[in-house]
Amino acid sequence: MTSPSSGELDERLGALLWKLLDYGTVRPAADGPWDVVVTTAGATGLYLVEHMDAVQPGGCGPVIADPDECVLLWLVPPGTSRRWMSGHGMCFAGSAKSDLPPSERRWPPGHYWVRGFRDGHFVDADLLDRTLTALSPGLPLSAPQEVQW
Question: What is this structure's pTM?
Fold first, then answer.
């Protein structure tokens, strides 16, 4: 398996963002009940989720996988999109009309919950940002090398 070029990644990310906006998964609008940070999935994403489980009080907040696009959607507190400055994930304002997977869906097909939603417990956006920054440009040697979503 070869890694995609940065141009291919930019093209895929652009297509994904339009898909998410078209289907109502995220909205670039006023505050909703949450905001959404979009990051890569695969081995990096699994490592991020496991790390957030370990460092965030109460464990990692809600995370949705999109296996078709190989991305994770991290639900963070509303208002995060206005101050998100990380170059390692994109943040969008959420919407009450967001198309969330059913709470019991834990596997594909389609979007599914990697970590379920609990009232009032979001992914800590500051911890996520610091973790993404610390992992750049690659994974630590102890991270899993191959993961199937």
Answer: 0.72
Compute the average pLDDT of residues 20-45. 67
Contact 37, 131 (CB under 8 A): no
Cβ within 8 Å of residue 94, ≥6 positions away: 26, 27, 31, 32, 33, 34, 35, 36, 75, 78
Q: What is the mean pLDDT of residues 58-63?
A: 95
Helix pair 125-135, 42-55: axis angle to 10 deg: 130
Average pLDDT, the chain: 76
Scan for tokens 């899993």, then name that residue.
144
Q: What are phi and psi of 131, to 5 degrees?
A: -65, -45
Euclidean distance between CA atoms 126 and 76, whole angstroms: 10
Cβ neighbourhood burial of 105 (10 Å; 0-12, 13-18, 19+): middle
Write the pLDDT tens digit of every residue in 80-103.
999 998 888 899 887 655 677 888
Distance between CA 7 and CA 102 in Å, rounded? 34
Token readout for 63 is: 């995370």
Domain boundaries, the chain: 6-135
